[in-house]
Design a protein that fits this description.
Largest sheet of chain A: 7 strands, mixed
Shape of chain B: globular
Structural class of chain B: mainly beta
Distance between the termini of chain B: 29 Å
Radius of gyration of chain A: 13 Å
Oligomer: heterodimer
Distance between the termini of chain A: 40 Å
Shape of chain A: globular
Order of helices and strands of chain B: EEEEEEEEE
Helix content of chain B: under 10%
Largest interface: A-B, 19 and 25 residues
Order of helices and strands of chain A: EEEEEEEEEEE
Number of strands of chain B: 9
Helix content of chain A: under 10%
Structural class of chain A: mainly beta
Number of helices of chain B: 0
């Protein structure tokens, strides 16, 4: 059974940094495409980043240059390093396994809430 | 403003059918057979119910069906049931520059 568990969310001041983790079981992070998708309170879904199995990364315009996606093979964990946080980054952050041929998010974690506020 | 346009809400009575539209452009929906739909119940993570425009993952009832015409995709739910009440999001591949785009979501109310 595939399980994705996100941790690392919390309250952070504008301009601050936070690192989210997504621990996986039942799948190998380094062999899969893995994404981060966020959802602001009461709002819709927004894809923000993907990490391919070959190490290629893509980012949404809204986070490019501030967020970095990475993984630790030994820990089978996906990360999202978030710098220069803004109020508009407040959201639930989900990690999701992403299929290769036609991007589909087929396994999701339960999400972790990031609140950016002074 | 979301890249894909969905109606904010739709409703239907048990047993009826409803269709949710999702309008994009030739750069996303119209350019690829890569539309997926997600169902999200309150407080829960999204769940994929349609992928590749028309395909259903294992375990998703055949009451859910997808289609596409030009730049518009549609999700049809037939034989509405109370548990179908949820938010629904469309999603499309948008090319290497955009990767994927989501719709703004549609709240389905089962009357």
């Amino acid at each position: 059974e595939v399980q994705l568990v996100e941790t690392g969310g919390g309250l952070i001041q504008p301009g601050g940094s936070l690192r989210l983790s997504c621990a996986a079981s039942g799948l190998t992070v380094s062999s899969n495409y893995m994404s981060w998708v966020r959802q602001a309170p009461g709002r819709g879904l927004e894809w923000i980043s993907v990490l391919y199995s070959d190490g290629t990364t893509f980012y949404a315009d809204s986070v490019r240059g501030r967020f970095t996606i990475s993984r630790d093979t030994s820990k089978n964990t996906l990360y999202l390093q978030m710098n220069s946080l803004r109020a508009e980054d407040t959201a639930i952050y989900y990690c999701a396994r992403t299929t290769v041929v036609t991007p589909v998010f087929d396994y999701w974690g339960q999400g972790t809430l990031v609140t950016v506020s002074s | 403003q979301s890249a894909l346009t969905q109606p904010r809400s739709v409703s239907g009575s048990p047993g009826q059918s409803v269709t949710i539209s999702c309008t994009g452009t030739s750069s996303d929906i119209g350019g690829y057979d890569s539309v997926s739909w997600y169902q999200q119940h309150p407080g829960k993570a999204p769940k994929v119910i349609i992928y590749g425009v028309t395909k259903r993952p294992s375990g998703v009832p055949d009451r859910f069906s997808g289609s596409k015409s030009d730049n518009t995709a549609s999700l049809t739910i037939s034989g509405l049931q109370a548990e179908d009440e949820a938010d629904y999001y469309c999603c499309s591949y948008g090319g290497t520059n955009t990767y994927v785009v989501f719709g703004g979501g549609t709240k389905l109310t089962v009357l």
